[in-house]
Design goal:
The protein has about 375 residues and is mainly β. Helix content is about 5%, strand content about 35%. The longest helix has 8 residues, at about 55-65. It starts with 6 loop residues before the first strand and ends with a strand. This is LysM peptidoglycan-binding domain-containing protein.
Length: about 375
């Protein structure tokens, strides 16, 4: 978990709101500066008391038509979007109807004038950041955060590999020694993976990566002493038996799991290339991979729309000429892990099954 040593104003604002501003008679439309897609729900509540188990996605859905509008209604800039949005249980999210914004604060006693004041909050981040509510339910994606999942084509060719085992053993278990060749790039702790299904771009049909099977972890014991020598490792964890030919990838830093849902900075059009687990269709809370990544402008927390190409039918009113029906959106995809040309996303709010080859695109502004 990323640590912060400074004292931060955690999206808390001094705010004075009159009682009528929270009434049903107040204006419900957002100011013109907000996207037309970022309207508040007609029945949005005046406030929401944050409780354990809440998520940014869920709270956003109580106020907004589209959860990816979260940064707009908080007036967040690019840097704030890329950093965790720390909100904690017992805090209160208020709907400032006059300005069309959400606010965070702790209420003071309402005075005789009917004015409710919110006290700005400061918090030293790092001591209790683990209690902050996540963007989406962590249990759905935690198993997929630390394991490689995707080994891209260029990485696969250059990854260090197991070339020999202790006493010629076929497979290795925890505590056993093994021998590796390849560029370690000064890393000492690695995950071991076995290349699995090749992922092909639905448009070009070229292999863009491999879905890897995690088999365990190893730690460097001794570096090679000669140019034609091998590095000695020992097995620290074993999920599956590992052996000659398995590849190594450096263990990434512990990921931040408190992402801000947002629209990608650039317009993105992509396709579903696979459903994790080897099946052909996905549903709510399943994991899928798409053929776009950081090079296309995606980052963690990006929200995309799932869509299906419009059907081509015959126009029975005009000589049966073929016509294409509009593309139909049927759900959302929350991107939680990004590689160079591939990303993993959690399927959210779908009304139909997700098929390999379906469209994925940035939400309309």
């Amino acid at each position: 978990m990323k640590k912060f040593s400074t004292i931060a104003f955690a999206l808390a604002f001094p705010l004075a709101l009159s009682a009528p501003a929270f009434g049903q008679e107040a204006a419900r439309t957002a100011p013109a500066s907000l996207s037309s897609k970022c309207n508040f729900l007609p029945d949005a509540p005046d406030k929401h008391v944050v409780v354990k188990g809440d998520t940014l996605w869920g709270i956003s859905g109580k106020f907004l038509q589209n959860p990816w509008c979260w940064p707009e209604v908080w007036g967040m800039n690019k840097d704030e979007i890329r950093n965790p949005h720390w909100i904690y249980p017992k805090q209160i999210v208020y709907f400032d109807r006059v300005n069309g914004r959400l606010r965070l604060g702790t209420p003071l006693v309402e005075g005789a004038t009917g004015i409710t004041k919110l006290q700005p909050q400061t918090r030293t981040l790092g001591a209790d950041e683990g209690n902050a509510i996540p963007a989406i339910p962590n249990n759905l994606i935690e198993p997929y955060l630390s394991q490689p999942l995707i080994i891209e084509k260029d990485e696969f060719a250059n990854a260090p590999r197991i070339v020999a085992t202790q006493e010629g053993r076929v497979y290795m278990a925890k505590g056993d020694k093994l021998y590796v060749r390849g560029d370690l790039k000064d890393n000492k702790i690695f995950q071991v993976f076995r290349p699995g299904t090749a992922l092909k771009d639905p448009d070009t049909r070229e292999i863009i990566g491999y879905e890897a099977m995690y088999v365990g972890a190893v730690k460097l014991d001794k570096k090679a002493k000669t140019e034609d020598g091998v590095d000695t490792f020992y097995v620290t964890a074993s999920k599956e038996e590992m052996g000659i030919g398995d590849r190594l990838v450096a263990i990434p830093p512990t990921p931040i799991i408190n992402y801000v849902p947002h629209r990608p900075e650039r317009d993105v059009k992509a396709r579903i290339v696979g459903v994790y687990g080897g099946v052909s269709v996905a549903g709510q809370n399943n994991i899928v991979s798409i053929n776009r990544g950081s090079q296309a402008g995606l980052d963690v927390g990006s929200v995309l729309e799932l869509a299906r190409y419009g059907k081509i039918i015959q126009d029975r009113t005009n000589d049966k000429k073929p016509i294409r029906l509009p593309d139909e959106t049927y759900g959302k995809l929350f991107i939680f892990r990004v590689f160079k040309n591939i990303s993993y996303g959690l399927v959210m709010e779908v009304s139909e099954t997700v098929n390999v080859g379906d469209q994925v695109q940035s939400p309309e502004r």
